[in-house]
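To: structure subgroup
Subject: Chain for Friday's discussion

All,

I'm putting the inputs and outputs inline so they're searchable in the archive.
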Amino acid sequence: MVVEDEADLAALISDYLGHHGYQAISVSDGHEALEIIRRQPPDFLVLDLMLPGIDGLSLCQEVRRFSQLPILILTAKVEEIDRLLGLEAGADDYVCKPFSPRELMARINTILRRCQTSNKHIPAESTSIYSWNRETHSIQIAGQVLDLTRSEYALLLTFLQSPGQVFSRAQLLNKLDQDNMEVTDRAIDSHIKNLRKKIDAVLPDTPAIHSIYGLGYRFDLTLKES
């Protein structure tokens, strides 16, 4: 689904997607898009921020309340704060206008590859407090399922598989298959911030992801004693 209120641009993106084997529909209003997503969710969402009805940022946040639908934000807002807000709202990636259609397709394909990889049949694994299942693309803390974006899931799974290891931002970027360091360096920090909030909501006052000055991030499975 392409949610874009500029008709010519929406048609261009839809045609380009069609040439690459995807069936695309375009919607110009945020309210209408949300109704369709609830009723018959697409496999992927290309989302503009400046929309009538519900703006793109609010639409992204609302979708994340009930779906892990892959979302790529496509917008003329180029300031770094706008990119970070989009990622914190739950978007998997962010492309600024004007854009290269080839880059757009590359980013869409990268996100879809990650989705396919995460859906391969891999048995559930666990620690004393965390459990995860790569078949269902889910991670639980003490039996409570975390509401994670695909990028957050990939990062937390990386940490869970190597507790105590320090990961640099470059290593974490590689885990996400990202290729734009200027944007995704900050994106890592944004995803980590969101993960900390979600873990803290289940395990209050028990920091799990630690910033290691000059090196990166480390995940700690040790729980604070009561």
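Points worth raising on Friday:
The domain at 2-118 is CATH 3.40.50.2300 (Rossmann fold).
The chain is about 45% helix and 15% strand.

D.
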